[in-house]
Amino acid sequence: MESLKQSAERVPAEASQASGKEFKIGRERIDKMSAEVVDSNPYSRLMALQRMGIVKEYEQIRQKSVAVVGVGGVGSVTADMLTRCGIGKLMLFDYDKVELANMNRLFFTPDQAGLSKVEAAAKTLNFINPDVAITTHNYNITTVDNFDRFLDAIRTGGIEDGTPVDLVLSCVDNFEARMAINTACNELNLYWFESGVSENAVSGHIQFIKPGETACFGCAPPLVVAENIDEKTLKREGVCAASLPTTMGIVAGMLVQNTLKYLLHFGIVSDYLGYNAMNDFFPRMSLKPNPTCDDRFCVQRQQEFMAKPPSVTNVPEAESEGPLHEDNLYGIELVVEDDDIPTGGSDKVASGASNIVEGLKLAYDAPVIENTSQVATQDDVSLEELMAQMSGICKSSKE
Question: Which segments does the entry list as coiled coil (predicted)?
Answer without folding.
Answer: none
